[in-house]
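> example.struct
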């Protein structure tokens, strides 16, 4: 892992080199997780979509507030039963 990230795009790029070892099992047990990840991944604002931990939460990283707001509003409209929360990563992005 790099010592620090300069942007959310760098974080997304680094995440693309990693994986969640629980994802295949979680999706097999709860195919809805795969549906959520596919939905998020298919949206133009999404830099990367992942599940956290064992799949209780899925998330998408976007390049900025406007992109995240647009994505969240569209996801809420497409899937009103989903819980959607927008948040902002803090910076500078130092994993230490």
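> example.seq
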């Amino acid at each position: 892992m790099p010592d620090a990230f300069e942007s959310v795009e760098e974080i997304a790029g680094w995440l693309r080199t990693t994986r969640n070892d629980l994802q295949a099992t979680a999706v097999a047990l709860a195919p809805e997780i795969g549906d959520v990840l596919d939905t998020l991944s298919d949206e133009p604002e999404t830099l990367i979509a992942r599940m956290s931990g064992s799949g209780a939460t899925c998330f998408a990283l976007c390049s900025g507030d406007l992109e995240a707001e647009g994505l969240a509003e569209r996801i809420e409209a497409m899937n009103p039963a989903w819980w959607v929360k927008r948040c902002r990563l803090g910076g500078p992005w130092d994993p230490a």
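> remarks
The chain has four helices and two strands.
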